[in-house]
Amino acid sequence: MKHYRRMSMRKNLWRALILAFLLAPNPAPVRAQTMQSDWPCKQVRVPEIALASVWTGPSIESERKRWRDDPAVSELVAKIAPRRTPLEEAERRIDDFAKAGGNDKSRMTLLFAALYEKMNDERRDVVNGLDRFGGRLKEMAEKTRQETQSFYELQNQKPVDPEAVRKAAEALQWRVRLFDEQRKMVSYVCESPALIEQRFGALARRIISKME
User: What pTM, to 2 d.p., does this model score?
Assistant: First the structure.
């Protein structure tokens, strides 16, 4: 049993060392790394939806400022922007709105501007949240490195205090497990900005199709 516990302790210790090594700051200069040091995703950090990728019409700046003054547009955007609303239902609501207004181009432009403003704000909030999440991961990685170093120093003390080593090993295992659980979330949460943008693209194309 003691042999098994020692093996388990070593396994988790090596796991901690590997994770700490992988997340250690790169000492080599990276020219593109400006303000993205806390960004946890492999995707490039893009805080806003590229409007030009969907909209080729005139400026919508005035519509972006006044769409909240239109109750019907505000209500519709509140229903179709959230991802909890199925895409098919959101598209149907756009069709109904266009039909009720006789496909009026100015109204559809207002709706487009409202949807962009709403979903762009949501995407920006998610990106900022990912920055904070990445910062917490870095802090956790640093604490793991520190506890690993402390564990080694405790092991190398003469004479060795078995009880202190045991407690330090358990604390380190807990730290590694907690960090590993958070790290596994990265690939999932990093998909959120792209999902928001994809949904906006689909709904934007539906709106534009009613203006042709």
Answer: 0.71
